[in-house]
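Minimal example, chain plus iron/sulfur cluster.
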Amino acid sequence: MDNKNPRRQFFIQAAQAIAMTMMGGLVWSAFLKESRANPLILRPPGALEEKEFLKHCIKCGLCVEACPFDTLKLASAGSGKPIGTPYFIPREIPCEMCPDIPCVAICPTKALEPKLVQSDGIWEINKARMGVAIVDKEHCVAYWGIQCDACYRACPLMGEAIKLELKRNERTGKHSYLLPVVESEVCTGCGKCEKACVTQEAAIIVMPREVALGAVGTNYIKGWESQDEERLEDATLHQLRNSNKNLQEVQDYLNNGEL
Ligand code: SF4
Ligand code: SF4
Ligand code: SF4
């Protein structure tokens, strides 16, 4: 075969280039597909909000290497998660809540932002908000009246992030339920409760906060909380500013003689 024929070589190279481009296109579209964030992905402590996280994470894997418990994994092709980004699956290996948070400390781009897990420059792992635990009341055996506190006991913030609530069993009239209840404001999303759950499929699962929790909106105010009184003042100011703005617009409209 005459590989030295420049014309023949040109056609071979052109065909190879087209094939490569087509393959590249396929790989790229697969990459894009996987890059659309899986809404159920759980990120390491200190991770920025998902959209910002994806912009900042350079997929270096340093956080994964730094994790002493092998909690963190890097998403691979076909996993349905943005390729090369770190995540964890609590039912397999939860976050062990390292006090010095090595995964965050090593991140070169602040995709894992130290300020989100520090107070006055001191590491504070309890500030992490990797997700929030949700109890599946249909499958949690404590809701059937069977005594179980495995999730409660596994929680590093036992009694704060997860509590046991006593409730009378109306069905028997004699017994009580001891029900696990998660305090979403305190829960770090470490997933130790999910790992510890005794049911075949965990009846308490950690979900991304933006998926699991609603957003109330600033117009609802709890009158009994001081923080909310400040919000009320802010909201009143905001409304005043808006109503002044609307008034000005009406005056301008009338003055322009457009009636
Ligand atoms: S805090 Fe520790 S256990 Fe948790 S992800 Fe970071 S390095 Fe791993
Ligand atoms: S260390 Fe930071 S930039 Fe590197 S993979 Fe982890 S989160 Fe992404
Ligand atoms: S995820 Fe579970 S174990 Fe971790 S803080 Fe929340 S309730 Fe506790």
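The first helix runs from residue 6 to 35. The first strand starts at residue 73 and ends at 74.
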